[in-house]
């Protein structure tokens, strides 16, 4: 265990020794000259030796003071370099975490424009549905699905999660026309036990049908469901804003107008302590503008906050 004197007093001694003057040390440290004198008195009493001696109207280092002053200056320089390197890395890298579907289908194709706008920032994107502890510094920013803002975080609403059944034109051409929600009960549905299906059927029919014994393909990701639907394997329950390129390309079709909204919405989150970091503000402003642009034709109501 290190036995160190109070670091505040050590810092005062190092500055006074470097300047050879209490007044200049006080100016550097933002203290009064009286406070510098007091800290020096505390340090000398703690050490049991004098570090400065009066020399005319000024001060001079004693032999002990001369011996330790260069070592302390070197130690403070080393600490300054260590913290400067951390600051440089903190300001030059932004780490983002986002769930799989949002990251893959929405964010990845847009990040290039942020990189062009901020070429000084290296972007690290972590893709995963697990929760990351932003308060512990595991990432700078999280895009997450949540019912509402999280305590201790700065949270900005991005979009809701509207859900509706979608299928490929090829699949629809091979099966009877889908005109009502009941028609879907007779057709292959992907990941049929997904609670999004229950949510949608409850909104469309007033109650969710029992499909516990229904056979079919089951996946653990909306990414897999959507791509299986594009391949013509059945209806998938998807959030259309995350599949806009496939919809625009005619790979996915929404045959029924009914839309339900999942209880969670997507939020941009970061620790309160990082609210004033330039890189955080830059990414926040860019992302909110991108969301607004992507929802300009918001026929699914994704841009309406849950409380509205």
From TrEMBL:
Entry similarity comment: Belongs to the LysR transcriptional regulatory family.
CDD domains given in the database record: PBP2_GcdR_TrpI_HvrB_AmpR_like
Keyword flag Nucleus: no
InterPro entries (UniProt xref): LysR-type_TF_proteobact-type (IPR058163), LysR_HTH_N (IPR000847), LysR_subst-bd (IPR005119), WH-like_DNA-bd_sf (IPR036388), WH_DNA-bd_sf (IPR036390)
Name this protein carries in UniProt: LysR family glycine cleavage system transcriptional activator
GO molecular function: DNA-binding transcription factor activity; sequence-specific DNA binding
Transmembrane regions listed in the UniProt entry: none
Keyword DNA-binding attached: yes
Single biological process term from Gene Ontology: DNA-templated transcription
Gene source species: Sphingomonas kyeonggiensis
Keywords linked to the UniProt accession: DNA-binding, Transcription, Transcription regulation
Domain HTH lysR-type: 5-62
């Amino acid at each position: 265990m290190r036995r160190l004197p109070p670091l505040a007093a050590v810092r005062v001694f190092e500055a006074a020794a470097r300047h050879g003057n209490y007044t200049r040390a006080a100016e550097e440290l933002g203290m009064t000259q009286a406070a510098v004198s007091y800290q020096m008195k505390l340090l000398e009493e703690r050490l049991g030796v004098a570090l400065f001696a009066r020399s005319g109207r000024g001060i001079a280092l004693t032999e002990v003071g001369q011996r330790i002053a260069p070592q302390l200056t070197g130690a403070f320089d080393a600490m300054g370099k260590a913290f400067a390197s951390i600051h440089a890395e903190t300001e030059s890298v932004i780490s983002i975490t986002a769930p799989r579907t949002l990251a893959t289908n929405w964010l990845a194709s847009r990040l290039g424009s942020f990189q062009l706008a901020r070429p000084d920032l290296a972007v690290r994107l972590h893709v995963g549905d697990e929760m990351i502890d932003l308060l512990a510094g595991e990432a700078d920013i999280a895009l997450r699905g949540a019912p509402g803002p999280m305590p201790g975080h700065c949270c900005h609403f991005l979009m809701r999660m509207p859900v509706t059944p979608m299928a490929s034109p090829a699949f629809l051409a091979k099966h009877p026309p889908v005109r009502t929600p009941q028609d879907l009960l007779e057709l292959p549905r992907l990941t049929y036990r997904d609670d999004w299906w229950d949510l949608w059927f409850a909104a469309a029919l007033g109650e969710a049908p029992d499909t516990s014994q229904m056979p079919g393909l089951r996946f653990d990701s909306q990414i897999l469901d959507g791509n299986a639907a594009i391949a013509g394997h059945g209806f998938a329950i998807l959030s259309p804003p995350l599949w806009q390129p496939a919809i625009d390309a005619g790979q996915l079709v929404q045959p029924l107008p009914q839309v339900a909204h999942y209880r969670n919405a997507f939020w941009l989150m970061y620790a309160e302590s990082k609210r004033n970091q330039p890189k955080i503000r830059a990414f926040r402003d860019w992302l909110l503008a991108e969301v607004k642009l992507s929802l300009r034709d918001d026929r699914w109501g994704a841009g309406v906050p849950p409380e509205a």
